[in-house]
Amino acid sequence: MATLLRQPNGKIYIYHWFNSKEHLKTSTKVSVSANDWDKLKQLPKNSKLIFKGVNVKTELLRHIQAMESAAATLGANMTKESLKELYKSNLSPVVVPISTPTKTLLSDCIKGYVEHNQMSETSAYTYTKTLNTLAGMKVDPSLSTVNHKFYNAFVKHCNAAGFARNTIKLHLARITTAMHWGLREGLHTNTAYKDFKYSLEESDSAVLTPEEIEAFRAVRVPERMQASKDYFIAGYYTALRFSDWDRISLDKVDEKGIFSLRSIKTGITSFAPASPVLMEILERWDREGQPDKPSTKVLGKQLKDIAKAAGIKTLVSKRITQGGNLIQKTMEKHLLISSHTARRSIATNLILEGVSPYVVMKITGHKTIESFSKYVKFQEIQAKLQLKDLAFFK
């Protein structure tokens, strides 16, 4: 009986056992990632998986049939040499790669990547925005033509649409990620996309002071906004990313009163003392049932409305490169608040309290001091505090 086995390098080999010690082993020339391989069935998990333009399951079943047919034909006169020769003969002619129009265009590669990785609704939505941007170009390039000509056209289109520099960067990052996946899956051999370089712009993001956080927490809101308010405050006191907010619960607090959770994005476990404010929310959720986490669209609007009701209206200046032009705007702070404000605010406030950045990194889950420094600009904060205390300026 023919048997398929996946090697550690991903390559699939087919075996025919003559007895418990002797066998024929030969490569199918198909590779499958560990995540796509069903060890129990010794077949790909996804029946639509493609490798170099060929349906993997169909191709592997073809190898099994060729091997078993050869063994049945040769019978008792079978040798390794004769079995291999007839097996190879049964495989001819080579199957013509199936037509995969849904995997040749960039938009379909992006869709395939999202489907393959079974993304959360929030993450999938960000890729939908990139697909909508591509649709707006009215050009859907094949994977082989995602090169610098495409790059320049894409950036030009985004600038014409008035996109912020960091928004363009995120779109390009998603395209690059999908192209990486397509390359690994054998959908193309193009590597020009690896040279796409587009730097992020330092953002003037909103940061709420402890007093503003308390005003936000204390303000009364309609019942329909309570979940947004609770999740934002819980996000502040845990310093978690929005993607982890719906995993905040009372069972994540240990007997010493420490809240801990492993990040979905990075796999890093962050720790924070469970404050009385956080415990009040978690205990109420435990009693009454935890509400569903609002969508990013609903949350974004409600957070601004709650902050406005809390009197967070300080005028702030925001610089942003939009449509290729540097624009400076003055607006009330509540208009800049998003889910990310919670995490950035607690990190900044802890630094302002004199907590070591390395300790704060244990709470935020940042891997390097460099990435953390860009996140909260703590060097800039420390410089301002030191200048403030200098006798020269008093």
CATH superfamily of the largest domain: Intergrase catalytic core
Domain module tally: 3
Based on the coordinates given, report the CATH architecture of the largest domain. Answer: Orthogonal Bundle
Q: In percent, how helical is the residue content?
A: 40-55%
State the low-pLDDT regions, or none.
Answer: 94-102
Query: What is the gyration radius calculated from CA atoms?
Result: 28 Å
Overall spatial form: elongated
Order of strands in the sheet with the most strands?
Answer: 1-2-3
The total beta strand count reads 11
Structural class: alpha+beta
Major sheet, described briefly?
Answer: 3 strands, antiparallel
CATH topology of the largest domain: hpI Integrase, Chain A
Mean pLDDT score, rounded? 85
Encode the helix/strand succession as letters: EEEEEEEHHHHHHHHEEHHEEHHHH
Q: Proportion of β residues?
A: 5-15%
Summed up, the helix count is 14
Distance between the termini: 89 Å
CATH class category label of the largest domain: Mainly Alpha
